[in-house]
Input
Amino acid sequence: MKEVKIIVDGKEIKAYEGEMIASALTAAGIKVFRYTSKYKEPRGVFCAIGRCTDCVMIVNGTPNVRTCVTPVEKDMVIQTQEGLGQWNVGGPTV
Output
């Protein structure tokens, strides 16, 4: 596997191209992937097979990406998701 860099909440971490995002984050010591809408409780990997939504994050601007079944690509930008996440239509907000 080829080693690549990804950006997670503004911090560069090493990962392997093709491994699942959740695996790369767990290897880097990152356990919280999102916070729930109502009570702001932390969530991370639960089922690890793409059935639940505990591991969803914002990946390259797209919210609700299941990180346990999404492979790492070079230079991905990943963000911890707050609540349901928001689509950033039309580019960055000013």
